[in-house]
Amino acid sequence: GDASELERTRQYMNDAFQSGAMTCLICIASVKRNQAVWSCCGCFCIFHLVCIQKWAKDSLFLVSSPLTDDDFGKKDHPWPCPKCRFEYKRSETPSRYYCYCGKVENPTVDPWLVPHSCGQICEREFKPSCGHRCLLLCHPGPCPPCPKMVTTSCHCKKAKPVPRRCSAKAWSCRLPCGRTLLCGQHACENPCHAGDCQPCPRVSKQRCICGRQTAERLCASPQWQCDQVCGKCLPCGNHTCEQVCHAGPCGDCPRSGKRSCPCGKTKFTLPCTEDVPTCGDSCDKILECGIHKCSQRCHRGPCEICRQEVEKQCRCGKHTKRMPCHKPYLCETKCTKIRDCQKHQCRRKCCSGNCPPCDQVCGRTLGCRNHKCPSGCHRGSCNPCPETVDVKCNCGKTVIKVPCGRERTIKPPKCKQLCSRPPTCHHPTQEKHYCHFGRCPPCRQPCQKTLTCGHLCPVSCHDQALVKQTGSHQSAGPWEQPSEPAFIQTALPCPPCEVPIPVSPLPCHSANPYSCKRFCGRLLDCQNHTCMKECHHVTKLNTNADGKKAGPECLECEEECTKPRPAGCPHRCVLPCHPGDCPSCLQMVKIKCHCKLSVLYIECLKLTHADLKEKELLISCRNQCPKELPCGHRCKEICHSGSCPLNCSQKVKLRCLCKRLKKEVQCSKIQEGQVSLECDALCKEMKRKAYEIKEAEAKAALEEEKRRQQAELEAFENRLKGRRKNKRKKDEVEVEQSSWQKYKNLIMLPVFGVAVVMV
């Protein structure tokens, strides 16, 4: 979110467009625009997709190798970025090729876009998040600071809100803060600032929690404890409080109430002045081994170590031995398994099988071919070389840092310093140009050497001209391929002097007369044009003729007639360039009539020589005008130019406001507002009757709605009365029956049965 992100974005854009500038730090090779890549979200460094997948796989294998025997396979280890070491989860291993913004999978190669870009709007959220999204096209590197303009107040909210960039919306008005500090007594005196105010810097006399001591302390920390023990008598009357400077009551005596014996099986209720005795039962607490219990009687203090003898198996599982339970058993057998580097044996005593990573140094030559791998012995490819190399310009003043191994293929930086080499020609100084490698460009200063005629040579310097060398090598036969022509630097002689002589139009090196290179200018036979041939000799002229007339060596006029045509005639003269006037134009002109519906063919001569009235008649098609008047009716005039007349004579029907009365009048009078039709008494009587009918209908509807609501109210009250009666019946208390009433049926039925049998 700061200006440094903008500089990083500029650097990544330069690297993206500069050929060969992007380098994959894993394989130390150039990243091409048609290769699948992956970009780190921490440092935005770009790698080949295949390289980063292999890197993640090897990193997960190395990191997941157990550092201890208990951690093997229990953790989901991450893999780091090769450059910034930003950690990614195993599930975040890249498997597909996306553009920089992550919208398009496998973006197409477009030479007009940034390589590996989709060309769409980025729309990634700015960091730190401000609610806006990046509006640049899909680009490498971090997004620049948010450029949106927002209206925001200062930190203390005292100043008026001002518009600022969203990336720098936090600002200070430099006025005193004035917020109440945590002490509740003083106000913050610092200038307007972000976040919470600092603790109060003032000093005051304050009592401790128990109130025994007073000391000068910072106002920001009023709660403090002294070093004195409370010493107040507890409610038991036998002991005192042993807490250090506390607030509130001391509480009950810790030795009061029921207390357990050391083993916790028996509880005693004793005075606080007596210690709890042992119960005499076995202790039975679990020992440190976690298997056996303490066999001693109830005792105070920790239990002893487990001394029972058990059959123990060593860690590697090859040997067993009977020994005390608290002692570990490790055999002397050395592990022969190969470690994760697949090169060296474990050689650890009594190994459980989860061998630790190899502790030897790798030592393999890295991809840069300059350094060796300093990491521990491992499988797979080594990490990229962490070293950087300085690539300098020819003068050594401009330096760029590149990954080690790329200094032989990277282009040297462009230096803005001027070249300091001495000139190779006869000039005392050379032209100014920037620092470069190789030979300097050819000198372009004027030669200025003195020629034999005394003038100075005006052409560019030719002391170091490249000349093709020919005839220096004879081929041995037709089987030998011709070699490329060789160029050598040599000094060329100065060209002939081209300075003009004042008394002659010829240059200095040529004094012989020849053509002046201007046009001849003699009048041709057409009497309209002159000879455009270069200055030449004219022979066989008539002595009586004018000296400006064209001769046989002059050109013949082959142009068309360019004399002005009559006004309105668009055609050319049918004759070639000729003297005198042009003939009359007899061609037919295709033209549309005034209403633009018919096409007319008229002689150009008639059209150009006609006056305004005649042209009006010639261009008319003699049909009715199809244009519509503002009232909506068709124009009644014959095809004419200009706008149609507004006096429409069409008969239309005019109605009153209630649409009962109607009358036929001329349309133009209605448009002018001269005629109107008002409602009569019958119309007003009909309106009044219609209003009374509507009012009666509304009143009847209102009465019907009142009757319906009254019926619903009566029905609801009836239902409510029925519910109250049922509730009163349920609330009645039943009368308890006597014993004779409960059991009389059980007694009388057998008696009547016996009587019936006897009868």
UniProtKB/TrEMBL annotation:
CDD domains: NF-X1-zinc-finger (cd06008), RING-CH-C4HC3_NFXL1 (cd16697). SMART domains: ZnF_NFX (SM00438). Residues 679-726 form a coiled coil. One of its GO terms (cellular component) is nucleus. Keywords: Coiled coil, Metal-binding, Repeat, Zinc, Zinc-finger. InterPro entries: NFX1_fam, Znf_NFX1. It holds the Pfam family zf-NF-X1. This is NFXL1 protein. The lineage of its organism: Eukaryota, Metazoa, Chordata, Craniata, Vertebrata. The gene is Nfxl1.
